[in-house]
TrEMBL record:
It comes from the Eukaryota. GO terms for biological process: carbohydrate metabolic process; pentose-phosphate shunt. The gene is RPEL1. Its cofactor is Co(2+); Fe(2+); Zn(2+); Mn(2+). This is ribulose-phosphate 3-epimerase. Homodimer. It comes from Nothobranchius furzeri (Turquoise killifish). It catalyses: D-ribulose 5-phosphate = D-xylulose 5-phosphate.
Length: 131
């Protein structure tokens, strides 16, 4: 479950109770990622951490060894039909070089003309309903 909410802490227990096996939240939406990561893990779910285009990958780095998946948004979340932001690919490359075993995903604006850019930087999963 990828939560694009302002207070992701309030949804951990309900999502676990509903049977979710992974909970992904945006680092920008919480003041204490460490506590949220711990709570998600204690609820029996895997942890995903997402960053928006304007957030540096270095802000995710301190948490990379505590999460199961990093999600690099390739559009601004919440608005459909946006153009794929190719300049997000260095974030994926950097994460892959620093954390080779981390599951790294991209999401937004991916289609037949841009999917190869994601594959080149070794994104583990490419999310888009259009593919």
């Amino acid at each position: 479950m990828h939560m694009m909410v302002s207070r992701p802490e309030q949804w951990v227990k309900p999502m676990a109770a509903a049977g979710a096996n992974q909970y992904t939240f945006h680092i920008e939406s919480t003041t204490n990622p460490g506590n949220l990561i711990k709570e998600i893990r204690e609820s029996g779910m895997k942890v995903g951490l997402a960053i928006k285009p304007g957030t540096t990958v270095e802000e995710l780095a301190p948490w990379a060894n505590q999460i199961d998946m990093a999600l690099v948004m390739t559009v601004e979340p919440g608005f459909g039909g946006q153009k794929f932001m190719e300049d997000m690919m260095p974030k994926v490359s950097w994460l892959r070089s620093q954390f080779p075993s981390l599951d790294i995903e991209v999401d937004g604006g991916v289609g037949p003309d841009t999917v190869h850019k994601c594959a080149e930087v070794k994104a583990a999963e490419i999310k888009n309903e259009c593919l």
